[in-house]
Amino acid sequence: MDILHCPFTYKTGRKKIKDLNMIDSSAFQGKKAAYYTLGCKLNFSETSTFAKMLEQMGVTPAKQGEQADICLINTCSVTEVADHKCRQAIHRMARSNPGAFIIVTGCYAQLKAETVASIDGVDLVLGSDEKANLIQYLSQAWEERDNTTAEINESTIKSKAKDLTPDSDRDAIKAKAFESPGKGEISEISAKGDIVENSGKGEVSKQGQFFAKKTKNIRSFAPSCSRGNRTRYFLKVQDGCDYFCTYCTIPFARGFSRSPSIASLVEQARQAAAEGGKEIVLTGVNIGDFGKNTGETFLDLVKALDQVEEIARYRISSLEPDLLSDELIAYCAQSRAFMPHFHIPLQSGSDEVLRLMHRRYDTALFAHKIHLIKKYMPDAFIGVDVMTGTRGETPELFEETFQFLKNLDVSQLHVFPYSERPGTAALKIPYKVNDKDKKERCHRLLTLSDEKTKAFYSSFIGQTRTVLFEKAPKGKAMHGFTDNYIRVELPPAIADPALDNELTTVTLGNFNAKGDALRVEN
Ligand code: SF4
């Protein structure tokens, strides 16, 4: 289902937004938009959908160096650093596109809506429940801003006739905006860790308008299936999370777990195939929880998508180990199009740390899943997320993690240093890891990851596998991935634009110069 074809009237806070069909697209015609995305694949996929929505209203993407009329920043809040980068991106966009209408959405926007709305230049902040109605919010807020500007201009002209004190239009607009009431309910995590709601007192929107519901009220699912600039499509099958791991703020930012129907996702997969898509990556926050609100299951979804014969390949972006059922592993092993490629978050190889994190499995269950994947699919690539330096991770417990991973038959580690997040339960754990130790632990894990990936790649040298090649600039090497996620390089001399988005059988040669891909053997 395309959200633009889903007419409904939607209310948030005291704001009633227009039906999409009632919106006059003429105000959008010929406008240019610039986008900036931070964070995960899901965010990138959603940004592409926002761009598609605006394109349907007549807005085209601004070219490099071209001034944009609309700037959209899709934010992340996974760490303190991510928050900082979001603020920097907003300032940068506002500076380089003076007068543009600036919209901010994503996790940071949901968690800190009011703060983001007060950043100079921001016009509109949309939380997780509101972003599906981007066009309606944008249309209204833009109209209101234009009306305010017109009012200010008129009164400035009048007052200038009497009083010659210079006052820029922008300052006048800001002053006017100070008078207008803020909109929407705000949920933020207080320093104590409780979810607090903006009572309405002091609801002053200093700059932009903000709309962000309380976490428990986030219900809408913003569908997204997009290619962006990449060959692969990213199909969002689920949003939100009910797990509340002690270190994580995602459930606060994205709300509870929810997903659309299998029928609607199959339809989107068919649509992607009709546009020429050959490979789809299933994305979400906690994908294995698919169907909790609909009574369907993730395995049912996998089986249904496997029937869409025009799609040659599917990958599952990430699955919690406790939700990666033995049946699902067995099904993938004999499926038509699900690739031998898994990405599983472990986070820690110490049962004590897993308990502190409130993860829902232990190392024995994790090892069992890896063993089963390798039993059914010996060639499978397995990527594992691991977080180090978390509260409670003593040197001994880190050593347990390191040894557990060393002995595990996996292909790559995605290593994340722990970052303290205000409001998370992890802050109650007294033992803290200092930055130096955190860095050292990351370094050891990254070295281990390198060794594992090299060993995995090396074991396929000389084999014949199918690669989906991606577009490359003229004269440059082309890259693509095998079914089991080995990065492959086609040197410039034999790169051929006709191979773009084509499944091609190649023989794998040695490592390329950078050591991050295997070259195609001539
Ligand atoms: S499963 Fe845990 S880490 Fe993953 S999004 Fe949910 S709460 Fe965060």
Structural write-up:
By secondary structure, this protein is α/β, with parallel strands linked by helices. It folds into 4 domains: 3-215, 3-Layer(aba) Sandwich (Rossmann fold), CATH 3.40.50; 223-339, Transcription Regulator spoIIAA (2-Layer Sandwich); 343-459, Transcription Regulator spoIIAA; 464-520, OB fold (Dihydrolipoamide Acetyltransferase, E2P) (Beta Barrel). The chain is built from 14 helices and 22 strands. It has helices at 41-56, 80-96, 107-111, 113-117, 134-162, 169-179, 250-254, 262-274, 298-306, 326-334, 351-356, 363-376, 395-406, 435-458; strands at residues 10-12, 15-17, 32-37, 60-61, 70-75, 101-106, 122-126, 187-189, 195-197, 209-211, 225-226, 233-236, 279-283, 313-316, 341-347, 381-388, 412-417, 464-470, 478-482, 487-490, 503-511, 518-520. The protein is globular. Mean pLDDT is 86; it is low at 1-14 and 159-206. The site of iron/sulfur cluster (SF4) has 10 residues, from helix 7.
